[in-house]
Amino acid sequence: MARKDLRAIEILSSVQDFDDEIVGYHAQQAVEKAAKAWLCLLEIEYPMTHDLRALMARLQIAGADLPQHRDALIDLTDFAVQYRYEALMIDERIDPTATLALVRNFVELEEGKLP
Asked: Which residues lie below 8 Å from residue 83, measured CB to CB, with a gap of 6+?
């Protein structure tokens, strides 16, 4: 399922001037789904949450080798709910290409754990 959201980011990143909220939402969803899949692989229960910080913390406690850019991934949390329903109030726009690279890296890292 994370791959579906990753594919959406790939398509959206090719469109100029696309809304940050939409790119951010699919980026957050891809990371959330990949993190939950990774936790399942580790046989660890996860909370029903969109909070990427909580999911990353569980992975770290389990000894998962998380990427150095995990803080940038955690920053996507607000796109799960808050920015879907409110006007985007950030100083900088999302760089879809950089976001795509970060998310792709995380999804592929998780997929590399599959048996």
From this structure: 20, 21, 24, 25
CB atoms within 10 A of CB 98: 12
- The Cα–Cα gap between 106 and 99 comes to 11
pLDDT in tens, the chain (115 residues): 999 999 999 998 888 777 888 889 999 999 999 999 999 999 999 889 999 999 999 999 999 989 889 899 999 998 887 665 565 565 567 888 899 999 999 999 988 887 6
Question: What's the sign of the alpha-carbon dihedral 22, 27, 28, 32?
Answer: positive
Please state, in angstroms and rounded to a whole number, the distance separating the CA atoms of residues 46 and 4.
21
Rounded CA-CA distance 88/75 in Å is 14
Closest CA to 32 of 49, 20, 15: 49
